[in-house]
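Entry 14. Structure prediction run on the chain below.
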Amino acid sequence: MNDVNEKQNQQTWWWLAINQDSCAASAIASADVPTVIPAPEFLLGFRSKEEQLESQEILLTNPLPQVKRYMQTLEKRSIAGEIKHALVANPEPPTRGGTHWVYGG
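Output returned:
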């Protein structure tokens, strides 16, 4: 395992679940990728709650062209190991109901 991946696995992350134009923030930090119900398209992990919530606000309130540019910066940061990115195997359609976070399972 390389140093970047090893360091990432030892940290806790503040997660965002992203599914199309929906973006839910986890209430607690976790070193493991949580299970989210309904299953999002992907999850992003941030090192601080402040950055998690700032990113959520950008994703939910900015016009689509700005969101796309911001997502490109997040992709670069993920590659650099500054944030964590996790794809979900079977994403579900977005819903209007609550998001459930399951940790350690």
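The chain is about 35% helix and 30% strand.
Filed with the rest of this week's runs.
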